[in-house]
User: What shape does this take?
Amino acid sequence: MASSGVVCFLGIDELSLEMAALLVNAGHQIKAFEIAECGLMSQFLELGGSQCDDFADAVREHNTAHTLSISVHFLNNGRRRPLRLHISIAIAAQFAFCDVAAFVLTASDLYDEIITGTQGLRDGTVFIIRSTLPLKQAQSLEKHLNESGNVILIGIHILKASPDAFNEKLTAAAFGKMETISAAEHILSDMCGQTFNFDQEACTGSKVRMVDELLKCIHFSASLEAIFLGTKAGIHPWILYDIISNAAGNSWIFEDCGPKLLKGDNSMATTSNDLLHNVTIRSKLKVDNVIHCELHWMPMLVGLGLHGDSGGVQMPSKETQMSVRAAAKEFMFPLPLLAVAQQQLIIAKPRDPDSDGIIKVWEKYFGVSIRDAAEKEMYSPSLLGEKIMTVSPGIRRIAFIGLGAMGFGMATHLLKSNFSVIGYDVYEPVLQIFSDFGGSVGHSPAEVCRDVDVLIIMVANDIQADSILFGDGGSVPGIRNEKTLELFLLGTSIILCSTVSPGYVTKLEQRLKDENKKLKLVDAPVSGGVKRAADGTFTIMASATQEALEHTSSVLSALSEKLYVIRGGCGAASSVKMVNQLLAGVHIAAAAEAMAFGARCGLETRMLFDLITRSQGNSWMFGNRAPHMLDNDYTPYSAIDIFVKDLGIVSNEGSILSIPLNLSAIAHQQFVAGSASGWGRLDDAAVVKVYEKLTGITVEGRHAIRSTEEVLKLLPMEWPEDPFSKIKETQNKNSNKILIVLDDDPTGTQTVHDIKALTEWSVDSLVEEFKKRPECFFILTNSRSLSSEKAYSLTQEICRNIDIAARLAGDIDFSVVLRGDSTLRGHFPEEPDAVVSVLGEMDAWIICPFFLQGGCYTINNIHYVSDSGSLVPAGDTEFSKDAAFGYNSSNLCEWVEEKTKGRVSASSVASISIQLIRKGGPAAVCEHLLNLPKGSICIVNAASDQDMTVFAAGMIQAERKGTRFLCRTAASFVSACIGIKPKPPISPACIAGRLVKGGGLIVVGSYVPKTTKQVMMLKSKLEHAIKSIEVLVEKLSMSSSENREAEISHAAETASSYLKLGKDVLLMTSRDLIKGRTPSESLEINFQVSSGLVEIVRRISIRPRYILAKGGITSSDLATKAFEARRAKVVGQALPGVPFWELGPESRYPGIPFIVFPGNVGNVNALAEVVQKWSNPLTTSLTKALLINAEQNKYAIGAFNVYNLEGIEAVIADAEAEKSPAILQVHPGALKLSRCLLVSCCIYATERAKVPIAVQFDHGSTQQELVEALELGFNSTMVDGSDLTLEDNISFTKRLALLAQARNIMVEAELSRLSGTEDESTVEDFEAKLTDPSQAEKFIDETGIDALAVCIGNVHGKYPSSGPNLNLDLLKDLNEVALKKGVSIVLHGASGLPEELVKECIEGGVCKLNVNTEVRSAYVESLRGEGRRGDLVSVMSVAKEAMKAIVVNKMRLFGSSGRAW
Assistant: This one.
């Protein structure tokens, strides 16, 4: 339906015309005001619009305001010139604006006029910003318009993916509050066919447009340089345009402006001026002259901010900067490419109205008559290419030199095309790989060129090409035997595919002729990248003699999808490639500049990329390379150094041809800067790092992440019933059916317990296992460490053996599950294909990567990995960048299509939703599965273990009805299928009798970032307790055999020495990930590293207390190769998601605890937590371990002073009954009385206790007693220098701490003094002093203590009748200091503290509470009571029970009950 109302354009450009036309068609009236003539107003009027004389006219109803025309004089280049300014003088009440529906701001120059002239706008007026308005002005404008009334303010950016026909529907990105955009929908829908709405500031549209204008300006200048350079090099400009517009050098601007340039269309002047206008820093006139006018206007002028006197008014002196360059200046952001492009536009701007048109200016500047060249006779390079392809000479044998990333793909494609190919490359390992593909190899250029019809050269530059042809062992001098000479006399062609300078090709052709061997040269540079090289879909530009082209036609045809034959002889094709590379290189550098500038402007870079690819600033290279910048993935497809070379060729040829190429030169320097910074071998997109390093911004952008908690809350309630019982019932009815899990690395046992895992799969072993009739067993294939081909063969072998063994064991029924990685890495679809090839077709494949412990959820078919409380799409995680198993898709349907390479389309993949699972239960799952078409692939969505169990129950029901499924799943599915409920993590106490003394061995091979963070945290937390050995990956995988052997020997000997001393050993690979050029090369490097670790561990001569292997491949290789285990028992988990095994009796260390720690499981503290739990108690102070555990789990350890056997027995008895850790404390008075006997009793009792109990010397205040105590076997000591000055206390404590810690004895110390009495030692109230946080920090730093006893108002002995008065705010401050310094907080005087106050102290960070008075009082009171009437034994028993009553109460209050390990 037609809309009504006037839409006012404040500034117009070409897109404004299209918008205006659409508005007119929708029934709107349109008018426009332009501050400067742009050449488009006549077209606007032809559309039916009206022109406003001034800004006031644009916004008012007719005759509602007064306008004053004032003559202003200002100085310009030393000359006095008049300027007519129209100043709107209006009072808000005079404006009605009832006919204005919307304003569209295109010209940012009008900011001041808008601020002063838009008072009194009616409610509901839409104000659309489509200009490069700076952020501050946009915010100011928004505030002003809001104050003017209920104005709807939004920003838009017009999207136009290609130069389409005029008057088609446009697409817009709209920015603002969603309710605001919705209110403006009636206007937006009339001028744009579709809008994408973003809930962001309205000024975001201006920022996006600035980036777009930046790219347009650079692309415009690059297009000029390219077309003029190509024409000067002798290429017909229309041919150049036709080829480039279908190649990597294309851009929106090139495609749009190229024809205009070649046709002599002077509308190019408008485009040029608009671009210049939008990027140039412009200032409002700074006029200080007095303006004379009639006196009756004076009050109004003064009211507008003009300062007057009796003779006139003075214009305000100010500058308003608006443009891309202005924003860059504000942000202090360098835009070198834009600066040069802007200068090129300025050069072409006519200075005189009577001058020649802009195209003539450019022709004069570049020294080329482009219009004359465009009118020359045309020909069709593509038709010439097609004609050449019809010729089919008999090419027998091809030599291919240069098997790099692109060359290897080309050579292998020729093999697939049934050519005989012999290859050579200076990198010898690639020759073996080429041989594996069926190619022949030689070891010098001369060798491979004997007896060949065609030689193809694909090397980096002309120096390498020269060396290959004419150097030592080169192709041309090496042709000596008669047979080869005869062959060359018949004619041998050399195809040069490298990007080299046209001048070099011309000289090379002449040099080959001078050899008199009838060598024919074909200049044939290629374009298309690695993938198209391997697919044979290159674009090739070829120039040569007709004879040479015909001779090589079949080869060129096999390698290309498009073949352009360029006339002009050898060098012509390289000229076209040079022009393409000019554009490609500039466009990559421009993309870097644009994305970096956008990031500096605060734009979400991924959103910016999506918008620019639909805008006029788009180019082929922007769309292809910007994703590399967003992903921060610079795996080289075309390296920075390539463009250092290619743009260097452009610059050199420009010099030879005397044509200025300023923009290309500055782009070249950006690549040079990248190479000089050490990034030369990275992908060319890494040129963005030049901007990142210089400005500190980051371009990398990820999809918006979602809060895990919020997403899970939005899901339906879980299925209310427990399907476990039904699963067990089903298993009983099908008791003969065994579930066999083929695990591609050992981490798949993450959710099961009391199950066997086999590491070999001979028929005999499988028969033996089948005869035990287990519900389930695992076979550890470790196939993730293999190539796809080997993984396929291995899976086939295992399935054949399973099938044979099942029949031999009595026709056992079984089903196979492929357990894969929850982050989607592994061999899919190769492994399922292998299973089907042996066991037959399945009704459906099930894909289910949900794994709760790994934070992996599948919701609406999108697979997420939880990270720090947020759900990140799997395709945006580090796992998707895996060198061997990388992927892009987070949507599992698309992932299936991606991994099957299109064999299975995303649209054909079925799924089971969470809604179906949670609302329909197992029955709905069963029905859905039964209705799947035969051969389907089905995705399972799940967000909880209950979802997984419901699905498993439904699938089992479907299987009972005769359907067969092949499941590719994560670990959660297996436990759900066999009805295993989780059990508590395995601790040392569970197998205490089987643990040996000594240190543990932690081996880290995993490279995922999570593992590296966990290792760093382990080293930080347990640096005192573990010995680290770092093995250099480079020496294991890339160095000589001697260096590898030395590295292995050194690591093994060092580890053995540390283990012998009882130390825990961390054996880790260096953290620099080394990748190969291909996935297969990366797997080979992984193999070399893993085998090196295996050899180190194999040579370790001391049996460890336990083994922890970090990473799936590492775990598998250590278990099977280093420890020679053929089977293991999965006992349970050390932590959720961390399998705990005991190796089989045939292994080197039968029954040894073997912890399989996956690379992607657990938080940053998880590794340290496991190591701390399993570490040798002798390697760390028991007291410190107790305090750390209490600190982490928010409870406190009770430290009870004991004086006799009754006290010792009371504490230990309660600790064992409560399963609580505890500390026995011996005061100096008790030690003096009993000498060492009391301490010996404490140590003897704690060593035999069933729970961890430490012994501490309490309140040692003299050096003599503290030194003596260190020799008595205490786990910890308390150094009490609180009666000393701060400096003396520091000195005293530091001296004793060094002595104690050298003996692995934890040190507690006291700062400030507690009042009260303890063991006949009294401190008066006036002597007491609270602990000062700043002094505490100094004290900790200088003494190196492990725990700090603080004074916050606590006292020794009994509290006054008024009760305790603790300063909890002070405790909070002290805890912050303690956390920062890594020490524990201790509170003395816990006797008599109310329960609530105790809990608050624990919450505030206290992890050790000293209890003395209450226990002693209970003992004494028992002697005065019931104890008086009995014999000695009775007295002791009563006293013990009295103390136990106090102790057990404290343990429960402190939260330590149930915390023993």
